[in-house]
Amino acid sequence: MHPRIEDLNQQGYWAKIRQSANRWMSRSGGLWLACLSLLMLITTPWWVEKAITNAMQSRTHQSALQYTQQLSARLEAAQTNYDRAVSATSSPREDFEQIAQQWVKNSPHVLAVQLLDAYGHVLKIISRTLPQQIADEQSAFTPLNRISLAHALELQTPTYSALYKWRDKQVVDLFIPHDGPSSVAYVLTLDTQPWTQVVGEDDDKMLSVEVVPFHKKPSKEVSSYYLNFPEWEGLWTLKFQSKDPMLGILAALRPAFFVITLMVIGMFFLHWRNFQLRQKTEAQLQEQSRLLDKQSRLSMLGEMSASLAHEINQPLTSISNYAVAGQLQLQRTDPNSPLQPLLQKIHEQSQRAAQVLVAVRGMTQPGPMDVAEVDLKGLLAGLEPHLRWLCAQHQVGLKILCNAHWRARLNPILFEQVILNLVKNSLQALDESPRSSKRIKIQVSSAHGMLDIEVADNGPGIDPDHAPRIFDSFFTTKAQGLGIGLKLCRSVIERHNGRLTLQKNSLGGACFLISLPLLSETNSQAKST
Question: What was the pLDDT predicted at 481?
Answer without folding.
Answer: 62
